[in-house]
Every structure is written in C-alpha cells, then in structure tokens.
Amino acid sequence: TATATATATRTAKKVTDKTYTFCGTPNYLPPEIILNRGHDVTADNWCLGVLIYELIEGENPFFESGMNQMTLYETICKEPHYPLPEDSVSEDARDLVNRLLEKDPNMRLGTFREKDILEHTWFAEYDLKKLRTKEIESPWAPDAIEP
C-alpha cells in the first residue's frame, strides 16, 4: 500500500559508507556481516550471487541439510561455495556467480560500479530494457492447475 511504502521510505536507513547492523537471512549473509566488519551495498551483490546460484542449481551454495547456523556461518566465511557443474552450467554463469560470491567485498563484482554486474557477459543475451519494462516473455510457464 502507499502508506506502507511511505512508512518504509521514512524509516529506511540510508547507507552512504558502512553500517554494522546484523540483519538478513542466514543463508544469504556475506562474510563481512557475519564477521561484523561493516558492510555497504556490496552485501546485496553477494546476496544476488546466492540467489543466482540457487536459481541455477536449486540449492544454496553453502548450506547442507541438517547444518546448524554456526557451521553455516563458518562455511560462508572460510570455505569456497559449492561449485556449479561445468558440464551443465555455462562458463559465463559460473564466472558471474564466482565474482558475486567473492569473500572480499572490495574485490566483489559491482563494488566500483553496479553497472559492472549488468554488463557481465552472462547478461549479454538479454535485452535489459525489455526486461525492466516486462516485455520479455518467460521461457517457461507452469501448467495451471484448477483449485
């Protein structure tokens, strides 16, 4: 609703440098939040990398079934993410995910220019203007099931 949007706009924290708030879904937290090193908008780039990985692979790049939250955090901070399979995932997709899931936020794709993410070769086949205006037809649609 318009009221909810206006309230969120008034209460949202505008981050110009770094913030130290600890918030977010555990499976999506970047190392700098877990380690309380301060984070900026590049934390969102990490989350995008997790999301793209999940959309491609159908599972989280760090979480295993039965893993407790502390082990998840240790895995995110210390271990490389599970690699995307070379035989079924394009080199461009693997490169994009690897660069978004860079543990050093200063080296993460999009750190210097957010545009760098959209200019990555993985997005080259998409007309981003049409995507923004919702003019691209989905390559797949589920069969509708009667309620």
Automatic annotation (TrEMBL):
Alphabetized SUPFAM superfamilies for the sequence: Protein kinase-like (PK-like)
One GO cellular component, as annotated: cAMP-dependent protein kinase complex
Every Protein kinase domain range: 1-123
InterPro entries: Kinase-like_dom_sf, Prot_kinase_dom
GO molecular function term, any single one: ATP binding
Keyword Membrane found: no
Keywords: ATP-binding, Kinase, Nucleotide-binding, Serine/threonine-protein kinase, Transferase
Protein name: Protein kinase domain-containing protein
Keyword hit for Kinase: yes
Pfam family, one: Pkinase
